[in-house]
Amino acid sequence: MNMLAFTLFLIIVSITLVITFIASRRTKTTSDFYTADSSLTGWQNGMAIAGDYMSAASFLGIAGMVALSGFDGFFYSIGFLVAYLVVLYVVAEPLRNLGKYTMADMIAARFNEKKVRGVAALNTITISIFYMIAQLVGAGALIKLLLGIDYVYSVIIVGILMTVYVVFGGMMATSWVQIIKAVLLMGGTFVISLIVFAKFDYSVFEMFKQMKTATPLGESFLNPGNKFKNPIDTISLNLALVLGTAGLPHILIRFFTVKDAITARKSVVYATWIIGIFYVMTIFLGFGAAAFVGYDTIVEANVAGNMAAPLLAEALGGDFLFAFISAVAFATILAVVAGLVLSAASAFAHDFYSHILRKGQATDKEQVVAARWASIGVSILSIILALFAQKMNVAFLVSLAFAVAASANLPIILFTVFWKRFNTTGAVTGMLVGLLTSLLLVFLSPNVWSPEGAAILTGEPLFPYENPGIFSIPIGFLAAIAGTLLSSKKADQKKFDEILVKANTGYKGPTA
Q1: pLDDT at 264
Q2: In this structure, what are the phi and psi dihedrals at residue 457, rounded to the nearest 5 degrees?
């Protein structure tokens, strides 16, 4: 056991638990629990969004992917960053103007029917769990490497901590844990990047020159095609990354934590700058790990390369930097999983329990209690699923969640605001078909099936591509269109006109 790392782990956990305790004293109403009473400023929410988005996939997964696969690993950095242009220009403002607590609120602003809200809640819970599996896999590998604790127990420890944050602190605690984590992650990544850059004499040209001979891949390390050899798979991955963020529930609910659409836009601008700078630094993390840690050492620690960044810190700065970066990675995972649990719990308690089971009659106290129990249930299910995904790269696992989000949520968000003929049948059909298609293609893919037994199940995959986005995203859009055009139910034109004005201006009509 690395006692220095363990000590830093305890310090970070202690700080976050203190934040949770303080936040719990202020978390009394549903608005407090779901959205921190919309009290965050633009820079605070921007930092929290960045903290929520720069997950184990960004820090651990991309560093490992670049180190092992070269240029192909950087696809993730590019896709994750460009995705925020879609969020900024298309989603953030309408979502904030139309919604209240969850993504389903936005859709229900136009289609106020139980089945629409119920399916939207199902999508939110499914995507959140999918995304959470990746974070727990990263946490399990990290704690196993540092503390010598078995992977199973490592995942359970993180699962318990993330549940505590949400159950007691709600959105306020989650937001401040994410802000602190963003500061720590940016600081730690900057230090490592600076040391790596110094090793290459502060010359980008020298760095690229040396990388041509630094790995077993040779000159091909700097060229595409090392991991994604199939062009369709490459396009599919990038489609999912660029379009998926705009459908991720735990990112979307962050826009409800500010007072208005103007502040929501400011949040995205702040977040985009922070995230952009971070993803540029992932080049140094990946190149540094490949050059100064080595392929064999990275794979020996974790076959998917998830431990490349902590191992690089150890190679460059010894035990202290190794312990600090590992503790930061741990904080990264805690912050993200707390946001994921909260988004899933909010969907269950606000959309399913309050609006469907209780028909809008649930009190604030009952909703908060339901959300807390839902948090526990979601955490348990995620822990169980994460135990079967130990050998998968966390960046890749997250890309699958992006594909599901882009297939099931994005078409409905866009059509709700921009298509006059869109109706309830189209909304339900698009969400269900997009969700089921993406999940089915993932299940039938080489991620789950492998003739050599390298995946979860042994057998020949029926779907040949690793990422389903190029098929499931168009199918989600087409299903929403077909459901609308084939339905005899007419869209409410007056309601659409109201939604269009409200989505773009925030105007809520005359008050009494």
Answers
A1: 86
A2: -120, 150
DSSP letter at 60?
A: I
| Helices 364-386, 151-164: inter-axial angle, 10-degree rounding | 170
- Furthest-apart CA atoms within the chain: distance in Å: 73
What is the SS3 assignment for 228?
coil
pTM of the model: 0.83
Query: Amino acid identity of 93?
Result: E
Phi first, then psi, for residue 449 (nearest 5°) are -115, 135
Q: Which residues contact 3 (CB under 8 A, 6 or more apart)?
A: none
How remote is the C-alpha of 506 from its chain's centroid?
A: 27
Q: Which residues contact 335 (CB under 8 A, 6 or more apart)?
A: 51, 52, 174, 177, 178, 180, 181, 182
Query: Residue 60: which of 72, 50, 70, 73 has the closest Cα?
Result: 73
Instruction: Kindly report the length of the chain.
Output: 512
Distance CA 43, CA 53 (A): 15
> How many angstroms separate the CA atoms of 188 and 227, rounded?
28
Sign of the alpha-carbon torsion through 501, 503, 506, 511: positive
Report the run of H or E that residue 450 belongs to, with start and end: strand 449-450
Residues 135-160 pLDDT 10s: 787 777 777 777 777 888 888 887 88
Q: Are 389 and 137 in contact (CB under 8 A)?
A: yes
- Name, in order, each residue with C-beta under 8 angstroms of 441's C-beta and a sequence gap of 6 or more: 463, 465, 468, 471, 472
CB 119 within 8 A of CB 430: no
* 3-state per-residue secondary structure call for 248-277: CHHHHHHHHHCCCHHHHHHHHHHHHHHHHH
Token digits of residue 39? 């009290």
Residue 468, SS3? coil
Residue 350 corresponds to which tokens in the numbers above?
Answer: 């606000």
The DSSP code for 508 is: -
pLDDT at 405 over 80: yes
- Per the CB < 8 A criterion, the answer to whether 388 and 456 are in contact is yes
Q: What pLDDT, in 10s, does the model give residues 208-256? A: 999 988 888 888 889 888 888 888 988 998 898 899 888 888 888 888 8
Contacts of 204 (CB under 8 A, 6+ apart): none
